[in-house]
Amino acid sequence: MKYIFGPVPSRRLGLSLGVDIVPLKTCTLSCIYCQVGKTPNPTLTRREYIPVKEVLDELESHFKSGVKTDWVTFSGSGEPTLNSGIGDILRGIKAMTDIPVCVITNGTLLWDPQVRHDICQADAVMPSLDSALESSFHKLCRPHPDSKIDMIIDGIVQFRKEYQGKLWLEIMIVGGINDTPEELHALRNAVRKIEPDTVQINTVARPPAEVSAKPVPLKRLEEIREYFGENTEIIASFKSDSKKSSPADIDDVRAYLKRRPGKVEDISSALGIETQETEKIIKQLEDSDEITLKEYFGKHFWEYKSQE
Length: 308
Description:
Elements: E1 4-10, E2 14-19, H1 52-65, E3 71-74, H2 86-96, E4 101-105, H3 113-119, E5 124-127, H4 134-141, H5 149-162, E6 166-173, H6 181-194, E7 198-203, H7 218-228, E8 232-234, H8 250-259, H9 264-271, H10 275-287, E9 291-296, E10 299-304
Parallel strand pairs: 2-3, 3-4, 4-5, 5-6, 6-7, 7-8
Antiparallel strand pairs: 1-2, 9-10
């Protein structure tokens, strides 16, 4: 499979089948906390980066296999709404299955009526909003030069008015950047304008694009949750006790690490395989010089090396 991955345990969606419809690091932003790395050239240009038919063919094959999936989730290597075919893919999924669909987006293109129309078919949309002030938005998210935070917030507000599904707004809290009283006050005002069903507070948990992206402790997250009020939650880690009946596949582990760094226990949980089997595969990938072990926040993560 080139364009779908999983299903993997998600902190928010149970067993989630990922749909990745843009090439690696095709995004409107280059967030300092991004686990996929830096975006060389942020773009606002929409086009059919991945052919609609190829994505739908893979999805059809998956659904016929009978593998359990709780959600189909647009996420992965970049910003999914940059693919101009996302509306056609959503319609195709709805014609194949009753499994609910979620679009995880950075929200930067929701000012565009066509983007809002394309994703309104989803059962849930999860936009992010990490800052409501222009200066910190640029420091934290390093957007395309034509992106302005007020335009982005207005786009999310308009989408909320038009959209009938669940809107879950994620805020990534990065220590020393958007956790100050001024930042949080501006964010809370923006949240009140948007009126999402839920606000999800998160912090840096995986190796970021920049070492300056620091996590904040749980106690501070709890204070921020209280500040934002009801319908606000801290995203907790998802633990899966499901195991594959088939043997572990080196290609599954390789595909996981190409999308994100991970600890052995993360990989085992995500792919539903025994830790011992994961360790064997990690050893194979290390021996073939495909991966390397790096330390972040006092923890060790396996990371896929660039093959360029």
